[in-house]
Every structure is written in structure tokens, then in C-alpha cells.
Amino acid sequence: MVGFKNRYLVMEIFLDPDKELGVDDPIIVTQFNLSKAIKDSILVNFGECGLGSSLGSFQVKYVNPITKLIIIRTSREEYQKVWAAITMVTSIGNCPVLFNLLDISGCIRTCKAAALKCEEAKLEQHKLVVGTGLTDEVKRQVHSCIEKIKISKTLDEHSSPHAAEHLLFEQVLDYSLVPAGLVVMVGYHLWLLHRLLKHPIRTVIGINAINRRIWVHAMMEDMSKNGVLAVQTLRNNIMASTLLASTAIMLSSVIAVLMSPARGGGGGGGCSGGGGSSTNNQGAGGALEFVFGDRSQLGSAIKFFCILVCFLLAFLFNVQSIRYYSHASILVNVPFKKLSSPYLTGDYVAGIVNRGSYFWSLGLRAFYFSFPLFLWIFGPLPMFLSCIALVVMLYFLDFTLEFGAIGADSTTGVDAGVLNHEDEDEEQGRQSVGLVQ
Fold first, then answer.
1. How far apart are CA 363 and CA 383, in angstroms?
2. pTM summary value
3. Distance (Å, rounded) from C-alpha 394 to C-alpha 183?
4. Residue 49 CB burial class (10 angstroms; 0-12, 13-18, ≥19)
5. Taking the CB of residue 334, how many other CB atoms lie within 10 A of it?
6. Does residue 243 surpass a pLDDT of 90?
7. How many angstroms separate the CA atoms of 313 and 319, rounded?
């Protein structure tokens, strides 16, 4: 069973004889600058919607920089659009070119057989044109490209059904393990939110909210002695939020650069700069062999976009944390007992401090969420396992096991007064966790 219907175009590239080419501008055809030129042509002639619909299966499968023979894969529904866009490409970088279609097929094995036949004919033609100027390095490079086609053609003939099953299995893993990992993470945090609202003293966040409320009341009791200490403590929290916000926006910029089409450097800007891009693409292709899962450009874009969203949320949450901490540093020094204002109380200032702490925790959670998404780059299995490990780790960080033991002792009659005290703490914890107006 074939999951996706593709078309394979075998084409050759010629220098445009009607346009002038500088002596110092030899054309270097690489997968990067060729793919960029075709995508730019699709964008210009068919718009963003046409480009988006064509990128699903589009890929430059093979490039021979000596004989200028290329193989391009595209989907069956979009191959005419890609073909038309290729014919409208007038240059690769600064080099004027023309494209000639040699063969089109719906099977990669048939395509490689036609490409092998064309390569051998073009090699003989190249030898006649160059004559004695053909160096050993060029011969080795051409023969290496031909051997790649032969080897891959042999592997396709013997293992094509198994490769299709393997590809389908990897897609099933992506569609099952990734949502399962996200459900585990989101489900845990929904359960944590429920426990935080119903039983706050059994969570670390609830206990810390109570302690911060006590700290604010203690600081505001005698501002002449505690004013500097309170402001310095809030300033330390502002510095911590600033550090996380700066880190988040820096990582967002890095992810945005990685998602940029021009991340291959200056290889697409001119003909002589394509060599470095070819090396980068070859290295990236070798790294993709270790990825067990979706290796498509669309899949990589989705992964990087999810990581980018996590870091942007972390930045926004930490900025809100800085906002509340800065506001609290002003209010904590106001002598509210002398003013007797109904709008300024110790509980109100404590609520502001707790809101800043909540946003700081949310920013930290966004960083936690980015870790499984980073591992998703290497496949759905590492991502799913990291979600399970992260939930187990967060459980021991979010819940107070000591209070659970006290509750168990109180129900057996060891200390009859503990239960009432715990109920009072529960009510105080709900007030502390709630966003005080």
C-alpha cells in the first residue's frame, strides 16, 4: 500500500546562452541553492498558498554539480505547479540557467534508472567537451554520484516494501506517542490545579503562598525596620524573573533563526557561495539518519514552532512576574496602618506578591515543557519518555508528602487537634492561593 503518491522529475541544467556570465562566477549547483530558487519561483508565481501546498512532499533528492543532473520529488497533485515554477526559474543565485526535463515518473526506482542512463551519457559527453582538461578529482566526484544512484537503486529494488512499512510505522509513532506525551503533561497539570484549589496545603505552591502571605504581614508590621529587607527581597525575585525572561527571548531568537529559510548562510546569494551550503546540507542529512520519526521539512518546522511558542510564553509570563513584583515593592513600603485605606491592606499586597510568584512558576513550567519538545526533534519515543520522566519528577517537587502523613495520623486519633488545625490551614490556603482582588 502506498501512503503518498509522488512524482519524480529528472532534469538537467544548462547555462543560459542569451545572458552574460562573468568569468569569476562559475555555477555551483547544490541542493540548498537549487531548492531555494525553486521555492522562490513558486512563491512569486503561485503565492504563499501555492508554496504551502507544494512543500508537503517537495524535495531535491539528487544533485550532480558536474553534469548538472538533478532529481526532484513532489506530490502527484502539485507536480504540474512545481514543474511550471521550475521552468520560470531564470537564475540560481547570480547564475542564469535553463532547465530541461528528461524524465518524469511515479516510482523512484524508474526515476533512478532513467537518471543513471542519463548520467552515463552526460559523462561521456562531458569527457568529449573537456578532453584532457578532465581532472582526477572531477572523475571521482562524478563516479561517486553515479555509484550513489546505483546503490540506492539496488536497495530500492530489494527493500522498497519494507521501507514503505517502516515509514508508515514511524508516522504512526508520531501520531500516537506525541499526543500521548502531551496528554500526560497537560493532564498532570490539570490535576495539580485541582489539588491546588481544593487542598492547597498538600501542594508546595499552596504552602509557599501561605508563607508569602505571612512574610508580607510581618514586613508591613514595622516598615522602619523591615522596609529595606522587603524591597531587597523583592528585587532578588525581579532579578530572577529578568534572567529567565532574557534567556527565553534569546532562545526564541535562536529558534527563529533556525526556522528561517536563509539559515544555510550565504550559499543562496551567489554562485560561488554554494559550496558551504552543500556541506551543511550533507551534514544535516547525515544527522537525520539518527532521527526515528518524521523527517520532513514540515515536521521540523512544526517542532521548532512548538519550541518557539514555549519560549515566548516563558518570556511573557516572566515579564508579568516582573510587573507584579515591581508593583509590590512600592506597596510594601506604604504605612497602611497610618493611612487606614480600605484599598490597601496586607492581604492585598500579599495577593500581588503571590501573583508575581504564580507567573514566575508558569514561566518555569514553560521551560519544563520545552525539554520534551527538544527531544521530539530526535523522534517521538524520546519525547514520550521524557514526558513520563518529567511528570514523575514534578510530582515530587509539587506535593508535600509530610502533610499527607499528618492527615493519616489525625484520622487514627493520634492527635485530635491536628485535624481542626489542618482544616483551618486548608481555608487559609484557599484564600492565599486565590487571586485576591
1. 20
2. 0.56
3. 15
4. exposed
5. 15
6. yes
7. 10
